[in-house]
Amino acid sequence: MKLITAIIRENKLDQVREALFEAEITRITVSRVSGHGQQIREEVYRGNVVVPNLIPKIRLEIAINDAFVDITVNTIIKAARTNSAGEVGDGKIFITPLEECIRIRTGERGSAAI
Question: What pTM was estimated for this model as a whole?
Answer without folding.
Answer: 0.82
